[in-house]
Amino acid sequence: MTISTSYRWLAVPALLLTLTACDQNGDDQSADQPDAAQPSSETTDAQNPQEGLSPTFVNRTITAPDCEGDDCASVEIHMIKFDNDPALSSELERRLVRMGNPISESGVDKDALPATLDAYADDFFDQSAQANADSDHPRPYYTTLEAKEVGHHDDLLVLELQSYVMTGGAHGLPGTEYMVIDEKTRQVVTLDDMLKEGQKSAYESALKNAWQRWMKDNEAGKTLDPIDWPFSTSDNAAPLADNMAVTYGVYTLGPYAIGQPTLTIPYSDLENVLKPRFLPNATADTAESK
Q1: At what angle do helices 117-131 and 86-99 cross, to 10 degrees?
Q2: What pLDDT digit, counting tens, does each position of 44-79 carry?
Q3: Residue 126's domain is classified under what CATH number?
């Protein structure tokens, strides 16, 4: 069963300032049904064309069909749709699907991934059913996938995509990725797009300095031995209003217990590293004058 609620913000600069949504119980037999396993009832306010991206925040909880009680497998989704840019919406959904697949040593072939979150839920429920077949003590199976705004400045929209996948065991597997959208071009930009030509090593040097500060000043970082947990670089970077944030996955800079560390690089360390387009206005003006 799918429970779905959508909200529209009419002022893009104030995107997602508040979110209050309550799931509704029960099936809506008149609603569209993406597939037989997951009936869906979804309401959306009337279209209001406007300049720029038109975001809608959608909450959905999908539970395994023909299952009752607290042990049912479920997929909880909190995501953004851009009503006037289906391509961006599809890209965001594709990324959430990828994050919802447990990491394996061989990796996940992106061409073999489900095309939609509904198809992902179907596959996830099949895995749960197989894992718990003939078991008197079923292992918990649930996924949470979320996209939220963490930055909006200089025509850059920064989304943080988060996942938590539980397939039994002592704990689930969390994940965090950034999705940076240039609102002028409506294109997703990567770290390589943001860097000046030939400046990848300078970025990595600035990131290593941020890691050293984190090891020295952060309570979790202080507990780690750099021999056991050495520095590693990451392209998972977000140009926020005050600094560049770089978030790591679990087991990368430290054990599971420290979570997903975020290192921050001040823009003063990136003035000649990032293209002016991806520096805040004041910093970009200073960089261009040098």
Answers
A1: 20
A2: 333 333 467 888 999 999 999 988 888 899 999 999
A3: 3.30.565.40
Q: Is the pLDDT of residue 217 over 90?
A: yes
**What is the spatial distance between Cα 99 and Cα 94, in angstroms, rounded to a whole number?**
9
| pLDDT at position 88 | 96
Edge-to-edge strand order for the sheet containing 40-41?
40-41, 2-8, 55-63, 74-82, 141-153, 156-167, 173-182, 187-189
The boundaries of the domain holding residue 243 are: 194-289
Q: Does 249 lie in the same domain as 168?
A: no
Has residue 162 got a pLDDT over 60? Answer: yes
Residue 276 corresponds to which amino acid?
P
211 and 282 inside one domain: yes
Provide the domain count of the chain. Answer: 2
Cβ proximity of 154 and 57 under 8 Å = no
* Tokens, residue 164: 């938590």
* Boundary (domain end) residue, out of 157, 189, 221: 189
Q: Are residues 184 and 210 in the same domain?
A: no
Sequence-ordered alpha helix ranges (H) in 100-231: 117-131, 191-194, 200-217, 219-222
Secondary structure percentages of the chain, helix, strand, coil, to 5: 25, 30, 45
Instruction: Tally helices (H) and strands (E) across the chain.
Output: 6, 11
Whether this prediction's pTM lies above 0.90 is answered by no
Other beta carbons within 10 Å of 195: 19
At residue 100 the predicted structure's pLDDT band, cuts being 50, 70 and 90, is very high
176-177-182-187 Cα dihedral, nearest 10 degrees: -140
Structure tokens at 183: 């609102």
Q: What is the CA radius of gyration of the chain?
A: 21
Let me know if 239 is exposed, middle or buried by CB neighbors in 10 A (0-12, 13-18, 19+): buried
Cβ distance 97 to 177 under 8 Å?
Answer: no
Element (H, E) at 289: helix 281-289
Indicate whether 203 and 161 sit together in one domain: no
